[in-house]
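Listing 4. Sequential folding, example run.
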Amino acid sequence: MNKIDIIVSEEQAEGTRFVLRTWLKSPGSAVSVDEPIAEIETDKVTMEVPAPSSGVLGDNLTEAGTEVEPGMIIGSIASGGSDNVADKSLETESPVSPKPSPITSRGNVDSELRHSPSVQRLLEQHNCDPAVITGTGRGGRITRSDVLAHVEKLPRDPAPKKPQTADSLVSKGQKIPHDSMRLAIAEHMQRSVSIAPHVTAVFEVDFTKIIRDRELLKDEFRRQNTNLTYTAYFVAACVKAIHTVPAVNSRWHDDGLEVFSDINIGVGTSLGDKGLVVPVIHGAQNLSLQEIAERLSDITGRARSSKLRTKDMQGGTFTISNHGVSGSLFATPIIINQPQSAILGIGKLEKRAVVREVDGRDSIVICPMAYVSLTLDHRVLDAHQANSFLTKWVQTIEEWS
């Protein structure tokens, strides 16, 4: 009988912490190759660990809640050497009585037993019936995102009005434990502002040209199953601006500045209350507008359905925060995504009255405008370089052709 090690994937997202969240199988259980047997949570995603082989799960499992690293052995599977491996495992495995639950499932009982502990807790917390939730995980399993998406669609009963008393005017709070994603984001943000002096430069940009261009192209792109968003133009403009100021696309080292030849642009993608992830468009300098739009449609769609791989968030050299989509006109400082040297922020698009020269005369016209900012690591870049970058970026957007 061979012992096959269960190893954490080497595909680590830069700066990411891994926590072994839970085991989906008990020691002595029979498992099949590629069957999910554990969940590992990072500050970016929750990943399933597939069984590397069919066999019996060993009893030398790393304890749930332990911080782990890529390449680390977290357990083993006894595989081969006998045709009766699975049968023997069934003899040694004690039947487990399911935990009583307020959930009444109309589906297959086995389906409920395949829920991970974190999913089961969510189902119980929100009193959800798993039979009415469509699973998007491996093999149709229900994921945390599936449950949360279902909960968001449920009707909310208005809170009953209560007469005000002195006690009711006193605010009472609830302490909610941080999940590992929130803790990792907090640590990453704190470290960034601690090591890098942040400075922000602000410009205005007129969207008139790219709005017209998008109107001309969006139907053609849609026929090719691609959603053409303004962010695709932002990425293309970043490539032009980085060619003008290459030091923006860099990493600070104590003994020198590492300037990257590849332009790998991360795009901040909100997951609502669950946090933020930054999937990366690799080699953006080699992509057309359509190819950028295709990559964006893919990575942002998978980000919101919890299907990102760790390599999708690896190797970013510059980041865009399109915070205007949630309504803010301007945000500062947008914290740099370490170990990068700068981050671009784009505010809400709105029509504003601006002064333009028309037929040789100053005139007040209505234009679709937004504020754009570059927050930089002042160890790496100075105001002149920041302004040169933003000048080129704004010029690319306003003179798009």
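-- end of first protein; second protein begins --
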Amino acid sequence: MKCRHRVLLLPLVVILALALVAPASLAQQRRLVTIASGWVVGVYYPLAGAMSRIVYKVKDLNLRATVESSGASVANAQLIGTGDADFALLQNDIAFYAYNGVTLGAFKDKPIKNMGAIFTIYPELIHVVVTKASGVRSVGDLKGKKVVLGPQGSGTEANALQILEAYGVKEGALGKAERIDAAAAADQLKDGRVDAAFFTTGMGSAVIVDSFISGKVALVPVIGGEAQALVKKYPFYTSVKVPANTYKDQAEATTVAVMAMMVARSDLPEDLVYRFTKAIFDDLKQFHAAHSAAQNLTLETAMNGNPIPLHPGAARFYKEKGVLK
């Protein structure tokens, strides 16, 4: 009889045990979020990967962040706008255009307001690369020259036109304006088919390294009153020095740069973004190890060049750390 009671009680014990365990198990399910990055061979992708690994380790954050390769800045802003990405890496000038619905056709009169800043990371320099044979020594010398402005509708194109404007050079004053991608621009520079090209990319980028291997090109500075006027009109720019020999036989030069930055959908919970931000700064060592560009991020530089409102969760973190009043 006792044996029979034990047999009858066993299923009940199992059911009760499952009832107790199941809610706890469900509570531990991780929230899935997406980080829109860029090309797998670029800088954004490893940075996003590092953030994904960092937040996964934080038990009370309970997140699993998947990294999505994308067409980079413009596409990433649009993914935030449609809600198809939760976090994204993009240039700060693109964030400015997207949030305010200006400049680029992708955003003009179509502002993306559901986007909040988390931090800026590293400068993406506007490299003005010219052939030595062109005789160009200043942006002002580009009048009458064949110049690559970047792909149609791209951030690089906008940067190029803004810099030309600062130097009083209208597009119509150029000999010819080309709108092609960076790889094609580098090839045309090396072949002498164009006199100059604008590239918006991190310092030491492979496409610039490749352009300088020929020994036929030089880096033109963006400095002086023109650079100051540019920064005053477009506050997302900053000045950056390019040390000598960053590229083959390249002289030291100063140019302007935009900043790569991290954003989030503004409707993500404040506490989630607060703990996400805290997780990154609590493990900067791992983040810095992901790529040399990541080493630029510190608590003190996290808001440099930020052109849009902070996400409330990020603002809460910076106030807690005393870097935001």
